[in-house]
Amino acid sequence: MRCRPTTIMRGAPVAMYRIDSHRQAERKRYSQHASGPLRVALIAPPWIPVPPPGYGGIEAVVALLADELVARGNEVTLFAAPGSRTRARVIAPLAEAHPKEIGVSLHEVDYVAQVFSMIDRAGAHGEAFDIVHDHSGFVTVAMADRIDAPVVHTLHAPFNAETRPFYERHGHKCTLIGISSYQREHAPPGVRVQAVVPNPLRVSEWPLRESKADYVLWMGRMDPSKGADRAIAAAREAGVPLILAGPVQPGQEEYFAQQVAPHLDERLVRYVGEVGGRLRAELFAGARAFLMPIRWPEPFGMVMVEALATGTPVIAFPEGAAREIVIDGVNGYLVEDESAMARAIRAAARIDPRRARASVAERFDARLVAAAYEDAYRRTLREIAAGAEGISARPARLGAQHRRMPKTAQVEGTAVFST
Ligand code: UDP
After folding, report:
1. How far is the C-alpha of 285 from the C-alpha of 408, rounded, in Å?
2. Nearest one of 207, 205, 185, 195 to 323, comparing CA atoms
3. CB atoms within 10 A of CB 118
4. 303 lines ligand 1 (CB under 6 A)
5. How far apart are alpha carbons 295 and 259 in whole angstroms?
6. Is the Cβ atom of 274 under 6 angstroms away from ligand 1?
7. Whole-number Å distance between alpha carbons of 174 and 321
8. Is 244 in the pocket of ligand 1 (CB under 6 A)?
9. How far apart are CA 16 and CA 23, in angstroms?
10. How do beta strands 242-245 and 269-271 pair?
11. What are the tens digits of pLDDT across the range 282-338?
Protein backbone atom coordinates (compact mmCIF):
# COMPACT_ATOMS: atom_id res chain seq x y z
CA MET A 1 0.00 0.00 0.00
CA ARG A 2 1.17 3.53 -0.70
CA CYS A 3 2.28 5.56 2.30
CA ARG A 4 0.22 8.54 3.23
CA PRO A 5 1.11 11.31 5.67
CA THR A 6 -0.82 11.46 8.92
CA THR A 7 -0.55 13.37 12.18
CA ILE A 8 -0.60 11.28 15.33
CA MET A 9 -0.51 11.58 19.10
CA ARG A 10 1.80 9.94 21.61
CA GLY A 11 0.41 7.96 24.52
CA ALA A 12 -2.36 5.66 23.29
CA PRO A 13 -2.77 2.93 25.98
CA VAL A 14 -1.88 0.11 23.62
CA ALA A 15 1.33 1.91 22.72
CA MET A 16 2.29 2.36 26.37
CA TYR A 17 1.86 -1.34 27.00
CA ARG A 18 4.10 -2.17 24.08
CA ILE A 19 6.75 0.29 25.22
CA ASP A 20 6.86 -1.28 28.69
CA SER A 21 7.16 -4.85 27.47
CA HIS A 22 9.64 -3.75 24.87
CA ARG A 23 11.75 -1.98 27.51
CA GLN A 24 11.89 -5.10 29.61
CA ALA A 25 13.11 -7.09 26.63
CA GLU A 26 15.69 -4.41 25.82
CA ARG A 27 16.92 -4.32 29.41
CA LYS A 28 17.33 -8.08 29.47
CA ARG A 29 19.02 -8.22 26.12
CA TYR A 30 21.55 -5.46 26.71
CA SER A 31 22.40 -6.09 30.32
CA GLN A 32 23.75 -9.50 29.24
CA HIS A 33 26.68 -7.89 27.50
CA ALA A 34 28.71 -6.40 30.32
CA SER A 35 31.36 -8.96 29.39
CA GLY A 36 31.72 -11.97 27.12
CA PRO A 37 31.87 -12.21 23.36
CA LEU A 38 29.79 -9.92 21.20
CA ARG A 39 28.21 -10.57 17.84
CA VAL A 40 29.53 -7.67 15.79
CA ALA A 41 28.59 -6.63 12.25
CA LEU A 42 31.30 -4.43 10.75
CA ILE A 43 30.27 -2.41 7.70
CA ALA A 44 33.20 -1.36 5.50
CA PRO A 45 32.72 1.04 2.58
CA PRO A 46 31.73 -0.76 -0.64
CA TRP A 47 34.44 0.75 -2.83
CA ILE A 48 37.72 -1.05 -2.12
CA PRO A 49 38.44 -4.56 -0.75
CA VAL A 50 39.52 -5.03 2.87
CA PRO A 51 42.48 -4.89 3.36
CA PRO A 52 43.15 -2.47 0.50
CA PRO A 53 45.60 -3.50 -2.23
CA GLY A 54 47.03 0.06 -2.27
CA TYR A 55 45.36 3.32 -1.32
CA GLY A 56 42.60 2.89 1.28
CA GLY A 57 42.82 4.39 4.76
CA ILE A 58 39.40 3.28 6.02
CA GLU A 59 39.79 -0.21 4.57
CA ALA A 60 43.13 -0.65 6.36
CA VAL A 61 41.50 0.40 9.63
CA VAL A 62 38.60 -2.02 9.15
CA ALA A 63 40.96 -4.91 8.27
CA LEU A 64 42.93 -4.52 11.49
CA LEU A 65 39.85 -4.01 13.59
CA ALA A 66 38.13 -7.10 12.17
CA ASP A 67 41.14 -9.30 12.91
CA GLU A 68 41.69 -7.92 16.40
CA LEU A 69 38.03 -8.17 17.38
CA VAL A 70 38.09 -11.83 16.30
CA ALA A 71 41.34 -12.36 18.23
CA ARG A 72 39.56 -10.98 21.31
CA GLY A 73 36.95 -13.73 21.00
CA ASN A 74 34.11 -11.83 19.36
CA GLU A 75 31.98 -13.23 16.56
CA VAL A 76 32.53 -10.78 13.73
CA THR A 77 30.82 -10.52 10.35
CA LEU A 78 32.36 -8.06 7.92
CA PHE A 79 30.27 -6.54 5.13
CA ALA A 80 32.68 -5.28 2.48
CA ALA A 81 33.61 -5.12 -1.20
CA PRO A 82 34.29 -8.41 -3.02
CA GLY A 83 37.87 -9.61 -2.70
CA SER A 84 37.97 -8.78 1.03
CA ARG A 85 39.81 -11.20 3.30
CA THR A 86 40.02 -11.01 7.08
CA ARG A 87 39.71 -13.32 10.06
CA ALA A 88 36.06 -12.28 10.30
CA ARG A 89 33.34 -13.93 8.23
CA VAL A 90 33.12 -11.79 5.09
CA ILE A 91 29.93 -11.02 3.16
CA ALA A 92 30.16 -9.00 -0.06
CA PRO A 93 26.68 -7.80 -1.06
CA LEU A 94 27.76 -6.11 -4.31
CA ALA A 95 29.01 -8.04 -7.34
CA GLU A 96 32.13 -5.90 -7.71
CA ALA A 97 34.29 -3.30 -5.98
CA HIS A 98 34.04 0.32 -7.21
CA PRO A 99 37.44 1.96 -6.63
CA LYS A 100 36.85 4.46 -9.42
CA GLU A 101 33.33 5.40 -8.34
CA ILE A 102 33.89 6.29 -4.69
CA GLY A 103 30.84 8.09 -3.33
CA VAL A 104 28.47 7.21 -6.17
CA SER A 105 25.12 6.96 -4.41
CA LEU A 106 23.76 4.20 -6.67
CA HIS A 107 26.32 1.77 -5.26
CA GLU A 108 26.30 3.04 -1.68
CA VAL A 109 22.52 2.88 -1.32
CA ASP A 110 22.34 -0.53 -3.00
CA TYR A 111 25.06 -1.81 -0.66
CA VAL A 112 23.64 -0.42 2.58
CA ALA A 113 20.09 -1.55 1.76
CA GLN A 114 21.33 -5.09 1.21
CA VAL A 115 23.42 -5.02 4.39
CA PHE A 116 20.42 -3.78 6.40
CA SER A 117 18.22 -6.58 4.99
CA MET A 118 20.82 -9.14 6.00
CA ILE A 119 21.09 -7.67 9.50
CA ASP A 120 17.31 -7.78 9.87
CA ARG A 121 17.19 -11.35 8.55
CA ALA A 122 19.86 -12.42 11.05
CA GLY A 123 17.67 -10.97 13.82
CA ALA A 124 14.58 -12.72 12.50
CA HIS A 125 16.46 -16.04 12.59
CA GLY A 126 17.49 -15.63 16.22
CA GLU A 127 21.04 -14.56 15.33
CA ALA A 128 20.73 -10.86 16.01
CA PHE A 129 23.89 -8.80 16.05
CA ASP A 130 24.64 -7.12 19.37
CA ILE A 131 26.33 -4.22 17.65
CA VAL A 132 26.60 -2.89 14.11
CA HIS A 133 29.80 -0.91 13.65
CA ASP A 134 29.66 1.26 10.56
CA HIS A 135 32.57 2.74 8.60
CA SER A 136 30.68 3.11 5.33
CA GLY A 137 29.46 6.67 5.47
CA PHE A 138 26.33 8.73 5.42
CA VAL A 139 23.59 6.35 4.31
CA THR A 140 24.01 4.05 7.30
CA VAL A 141 23.92 6.99 9.74
CA ALA A 142 20.83 8.53 8.20
CA MET A 143 19.00 5.19 8.27
CA ALA A 144 20.44 3.79 11.51
CA ASP A 145 17.09 3.90 13.29
CA ARG A 146 15.62 1.60 10.65
CA ILE A 147 17.40 -1.55 11.78
CA ASP A 148 16.83 -3.56 14.88
CA ALA A 149 20.40 -3.41 16.19
CA PRO A 150 22.35 -0.54 17.76
CA VAL A 151 24.71 1.22 15.37
CA VAL A 152 28.11 2.62 16.29
CA HIS A 153 29.50 4.86 13.58
CA THR A 154 33.11 5.92 13.21
CA LEU A 155 33.44 9.48 11.94
CA HIS A 156 36.06 9.25 9.20
CA ALA A 157 35.37 12.70 7.76
CA PRO A 158 35.74 16.10 9.41
CA PHE A 159 32.84 18.17 10.67
CA ASN A 160 32.53 20.98 8.17
CA ALA A 161 29.89 23.24 6.65
CA GLU A 162 28.56 20.35 4.57
CA THR A 163 28.55 17.60 7.18
CA ARG A 164 27.52 19.56 10.30
CA PRO A 165 23.82 19.92 9.36
CA PHE A 166 23.77 16.24 8.42
CA TYR A 167 25.00 15.12 11.83
CA GLU A 168 22.70 17.62 13.55
CA ARG A 169 19.79 15.92 11.82
CA HIS A 170 20.87 12.28 11.97
CA GLY A 171 23.72 11.90 14.47
CA HIS A 172 21.37 10.95 17.33
CA LYS A 173 20.37 7.77 15.52
CA CYS A 174 23.61 6.04 16.41
CA THR A 175 26.61 6.20 18.71
CA LEU A 176 29.25 8.44 17.14
CA ILE A 177 32.95 7.73 17.67
CA GLY A 178 35.56 10.31 16.71
CA ILE A 179 39.06 9.48 15.49
CA SER A 180 40.79 12.49 17.08
CA SER A 181 40.13 14.92 19.88
CA TYR A 182 40.29 17.73 17.33
CA GLN A 183 37.42 16.18 15.45
CA ARG A 184 35.34 15.67 18.59
CA GLU A 185 35.95 19.25 19.73
CA HIS A 186 34.52 20.45 16.42
CA ALA A 187 31.26 18.52 16.66
CA PRO A 188 28.26 20.80 16.28
CA PRO A 189 26.49 21.75 19.54
CA GLY A 190 24.10 19.00 20.56
CA VAL A 191 25.88 16.31 18.57
CA ARG A 192 27.32 13.83 21.03
CA VAL A 193 30.55 12.03 20.17
CA GLN A 194 30.71 9.27 22.73
CA ALA A 195 34.46 8.59 22.57
CA VAL A 196 37.63 9.18 20.62
CA VAL A 197 39.22 5.99 19.28
CA PRO A 198 42.19 6.67 16.99
CA ASN A 199 42.86 4.73 13.83
CA PRO A 200 44.96 1.62 14.40
CA LEU A 201 47.99 0.04 12.87
CA ARG A 202 49.94 -3.09 13.79
CA VAL A 203 53.32 -1.68 14.71
CA SER A 204 55.08 -5.05 14.43
CA GLU A 205 54.22 -5.18 10.72
CA TRP A 206 56.21 -2.04 9.96
CA PRO A 207 60.01 -2.23 9.69
CA LEU A 208 62.00 0.06 12.00
CA ARG A 209 64.92 1.68 10.16
CA GLU A 210 67.34 3.71 12.23
CA SER A 211 69.71 4.81 9.48
CA LYS A 212 67.85 6.81 6.90
CA ALA A 213 68.47 7.43 3.21
CA ASP A 214 68.82 10.88 1.70
CA TYR A 215 65.28 11.69 0.64
CA VAL A 216 62.07 12.98 2.15
CA LEU A 217 58.68 11.41 1.42
CA TRP A 218 55.18 12.67 0.73
CA MET A 219 52.38 10.14 0.30
CA GLY A 220 48.66 10.64 -0.20
CA ARG A 221 45.80 11.38 -2.53
CA MET A 222 46.68 14.05 -5.10
CA ASP A 223 44.21 16.43 -3.52
CA PRO A 224 45.30 20.05 -3.10
CA SER A 225 44.47 19.89 0.62
CA LYS A 226 47.16 17.23 1.08
CA GLY A 227 49.80 19.58 -0.30
CA ALA A 228 52.07 17.67 -2.70
CA ASP A 229 52.95 21.06 -4.24
CA ARG A 230 53.91 22.47 -0.83
CA ALA A 231 56.06 19.40 -0.15
CA ILE A 232 57.87 20.13 -3.42
CA ALA A 233 58.50 23.74 -2.37
CA ALA A 234 59.82 22.70 1.06
CA ALA A 235 62.09 19.96 -0.29
CA ARG A 236 63.49 22.29 -2.95
CA GLU A 237 64.24 24.93 -0.34
CA ALA A 238 65.98 22.31 1.82
CA GLY A 239 67.84 20.95 -1.22
CA VAL A 240 66.81 17.39 -0.36
CA PRO A 241 65.37 14.89 -2.89
CA LEU A 242 61.63 14.27 -2.56
CA ILE A 243 59.65 11.15 -3.44
CA LEU A 244 55.93 11.61 -4.04
CA ALA A 245 53.62 8.59 -3.89
CA GLY A 246 49.86 8.21 -4.22
CA PRO A 247 46.98 7.88 -6.64
CA VAL A 248 45.66 10.62 -8.89
CA GLN A 249 41.98 10.10 -8.23
CA PRO A 250 39.14 11.27 -10.47
CA GLY A 251 38.91 15.05 -10.21
CA GLN A 252 42.57 15.45 -9.21
CA GLU A 253 44.02 15.31 -12.74
CA GLU A 254 44.14 19.08 -13.24
CA TYR A 255 45.87 19.76 -9.92
CA PHE A 256 48.40 17.06 -10.68
CA ALA A 257 49.04 18.32 -14.22
CA GLN A 258 49.41 21.96 -13.15
CA GLN A 259 50.94 21.87 -9.67
CA VAL A 260 52.94 18.65 -9.55
CA ALA A 261 53.88 17.27 -12.97
CA PRO A 262 55.88 20.37 -14.11
CA HIS A 263 58.24 19.93 -11.13
CA LEU A 264 59.04 16.28 -11.68
CA ASP A 265 62.56 15.32 -12.66
CA GLU A 266 64.69 12.29 -11.94
CA ARG A 267 67.03 14.21 -9.66
CA LEU A 268 65.14 16.18 -7.02
CA VAL A 269 61.42 15.38 -7.30
CA ARG A 270 60.23 11.91 -8.29
CA TYR A 271 56.67 10.60 -8.55
CA VAL A 272 56.31 6.85 -8.14
CA GLY A 273 52.51 6.59 -8.43
CA GLU A 274 50.34 4.58 -6.08
CA VAL A 275 52.32 2.17 -3.95
CA GLY A 276 51.46 -0.73 -1.67
CA GLY A 277 52.93 -3.61 0.30
CA ARG A 278 56.68 -3.86 0.71
CA LEU A 279 57.54 -0.87 -1.48
CA ARG A 280 55.30 1.37 0.60
CA ALA A 281 56.86 0.17 3.86
CA GLU A 282 60.39 0.60 2.45
CA LEU A 283 59.61 4.13 1.25
CA PHE A 284 58.41 5.10 4.72
CA ALA A 285 61.29 3.38 6.53
CA GLY A 286 64.06 4.84 4.39
CA ALA A 287 62.93 8.47 4.43
CA ARG A 288 64.83 11.11 6.36
CA ALA A 289 61.45 12.65 7.15
CA PHE A 290 57.82 12.35 6.12
CA LEU A 291 56.23 15.61 4.95
CA MET A 292 52.61 16.45 5.80
CA PRO A 293 52.00 20.00 4.55
CA ILE A 294 48.21 19.78 4.86
CA ARG A 295 45.87 22.72 4.61
CA TRP A 296 42.67 21.15 5.92
CA PRO A 297 41.48 19.94 9.31
CA GLU A 298 42.50 16.34 8.64
CA PRO A 299 40.57 14.25 11.19
CA PHE A 300 43.39 11.69 11.49
CA GLY A 301 46.06 10.95 8.84
CA MET A 302 47.17 7.32 8.68
CA VAL A 303 50.30 8.17 6.72
CA MET A 304 51.75 10.04 9.70
CA VAL A 305 51.31 7.07 12.00
CA GLU A 306 52.72 4.66 9.40
CA ALA A 307 55.80 6.81 8.90
CA LEU A 308 56.37 7.07 12.66
CA ALA A 309 56.04 3.29 13.06
CA THR A 310 59.08 2.91 10.80
CA GLY A 311 61.02 5.39 12.92
CA THR A 312 60.65 8.21 10.40
CA PRO A 313 59.96 11.66 11.88
CA VAL A 314 56.90 13.52 10.63
CA ILE A 315 57.06 17.20 9.76
CA ALA A 316 53.51 18.53 9.59
CA PHE A 317 51.53 21.72 9.40
CA PRO A 318 49.57 22.07 12.67
CA GLU A 319 46.16 21.26 11.19
CA GLY A 320 43.51 18.90 12.54
CA ALA A 321 44.82 15.74 14.19
CA ALA A 322 48.43 16.46 13.18
CA ARG A 323 48.70 18.35 16.48
CA GLU A 324 47.87 15.17 18.38
CA ILE A 325 49.88 12.68 16.34
CA VAL A 326 53.04 14.78 16.05
CA ILE A 327 54.70 15.62 19.36
CA ASP A 328 56.90 18.57 18.49
CA GLY A 329 60.60 17.78 19.02
CA VAL A 330 59.85 14.19 20.13
CA ASN A 331 58.62 12.32 17.04
CA GLY A 332 58.78 15.15 14.51
CA TYR A 333 58.05 18.83 14.11
CA LEU A 334 54.99 21.03 13.75
CA VAL A 335 55.76 23.90 11.38
CA GLU A 336 53.77 26.83 10.04
CA ASP A 337 54.85 26.96 6.40
CA GLU A 338 57.11 25.62 3.66
CA SER A 339 60.19 27.55 4.78
CA ALA A 340 59.86 26.27 8.34
CA MET A 341 59.37 22.80 6.88
CA ALA A 342 62.63 23.15 4.96
CA ARG A 343 64.45 24.07 8.17
CA ALA A 344 62.86 21.12 9.99
CA ILE A 345 63.99 18.75 7.22
CA ARG A 346 67.57 19.75 8.02
CA ALA A 347 66.92 19.08 11.74
CA ALA A 348 65.13 15.75 11.24
CA ALA A 349 68.11 13.60 12.22
CA ARG A 350 67.75 14.89 15.79
CA ILE A 351 64.61 12.79 16.25
CA ASP A 352 65.30 9.36 17.73
CA PRO A 353 63.68 6.75 15.41
CA ARG A 354 62.97 4.42 18.34
CA ARG A 355 61.17 7.18 20.19
CA ALA A 356 59.16 7.97 17.06
CA ARG A 357 58.07 4.33 16.79
CA ALA A 358 57.27 4.11 20.51
CA SER A 359 55.00 7.17 20.19
CA VAL A 360 52.83 5.06 17.87
CA ALA A 361 53.03 1.75 19.74
CA GLU A 362 51.86 3.48 22.93
CA ARG A 363 48.81 5.09 21.38
CA PHE A 364 47.73 3.52 18.09
CA ASP A 365 48.54 -0.17 18.14
CA ALA A 366 45.66 -2.28 16.81
CA ARG A 367 45.29 -4.22 20.05
CA LEU A 368 44.71 -1.03 22.05
CA VAL A 369 42.30 0.29 19.45
CA ALA A 370 40.22 -2.93 19.29
CA ALA A 371 39.96 -2.94 23.10
CA ALA A 372 38.81 0.69 23.01
CA TYR A 373 36.14 -0.12 20.43
CA GLU A 374 34.93 -3.06 22.45
CA ASP A 375 34.58 -0.68 25.41
CA ALA A 376 32.57 1.67 23.21
CA TYR A 377 30.27 -1.19 22.14
CA ARG A 378 29.65 -2.26 25.72
CA ARG A 379 29.11 1.31 26.83
CA THR A 380 26.55 1.73 24.06
CA LEU A 381 24.76 -1.43 25.20
CA ARG A 382 24.87 -0.25 28.82
CA GLU A 383 23.37 3.07 27.81
CA ILE A 384 20.59 1.29 25.97
CA ALA A 385 19.91 -0.92 28.97
CA ALA A 386 19.87 2.20 31.16
CA GLY A 387 17.51 3.85 28.70
CA ALA A 388 15.25 0.81 28.96
CA GLU A 389 15.32 1.29 32.75
CA GLY A 390 14.17 4.83 32.16
CA ILE A 391 17.42 6.26 33.52
CA SER A 392 18.66 7.83 30.32
CA ALA A 393 17.18 7.30 26.93
CA ARG A 394 19.40 6.18 24.05
CA PRO A 395 18.16 7.93 20.97
CA ALA A 396 19.30 5.20 18.59
CA ARG A 397 17.32 2.58 20.45
CA LEU A 398 14.39 4.87 20.96
CA GLY A 399 14.37 5.16 17.20
CA ALA A 400 14.05 1.42 16.96
CA GLN A 401 11.39 1.41 19.68
CA HIS A 402 9.40 3.94 17.73
CA ARG A 403 9.61 1.75 14.71
CA ARG A 404 8.25 -1.25 16.51
CA MET A 405 5.47 0.68 18.18
CA PRO A 406 2.16 0.98 16.39
CA LYS A 407 2.65 3.62 13.72
CA THR A 408 0.09 5.75 15.54
CA ALA A 409 2.34 6.23 18.57
CA GLN A 410 5.28 8.19 17.33
CA VAL A 411 6.11 11.82 17.79
CA GLU A 412 3.40 14.10 19.01
CA GLY A 413 2.15 16.50 16.43
CA THR A 414 4.64 15.39 13.80
CA ALA A 415 3.56 14.31 10.37
CA VAL A 416 4.70 10.75 9.72
CA PHE A 417 3.93 8.18 7.09
CA SER A 418 1.54 5.43 7.90
CA THR A 419 0.41 2.49 5.79
N1 UDP B 1 48.30 4.75 0.65
C2 UDP B 1 48.81 3.66 -0.03
N3 UDP B 1 49.40 3.89 -1.23
C4 UDP B 1 49.52 5.10 -1.76
C5 UDP B 1 49.01 6.21 -1.06
C6 UDP B 1 48.39 6.01 0.15
O7 UDP B 1 48.73 2.53 0.43
O8 UDP B 1 50.09 5.21 -2.86
C9 UDP B 1 47.66 4.51 1.94
C10 UDP B 1 48.42 5.15 3.09
O11 UDP B 1 49.53 4.34 3.44
C12 UDP B 1 47.33 5.26 4.14
C13 UDP B 1 46.07 5.53 3.31
O14 UDP B 1 46.36 5.11 1.98
O15 UDP B 1 47.17 4.03 4.83
C16 UDP B 1 45.67 6.99 3.31
O17 UDP B 1 45.09 7.29 4.54
P18 UDP B 1 45.21 8.72 5.20
O19 UDP B 1 44.44 8.68 6.48
O20 UDP B 1 46.61 9.14 5.28
O21 UDP B 1 44.52 9.70 4.17
P22 UDP B 1 43.05 9.78 3.55
O23 UDP B 1 43.23 9.60 2.09
O24 UDP B 1 42.21 8.71 4.18
O25 UDP B 1 42.57 11.18 3.85
Report:
1. 62
2. 185
3. 16
4. yes
5. 15
6. yes
7. 23
8. no
9. 10
10. parallel
11. 999 999 999 999 999 999 999 999 999 999 999 999 999 999 999 999 999 999 999
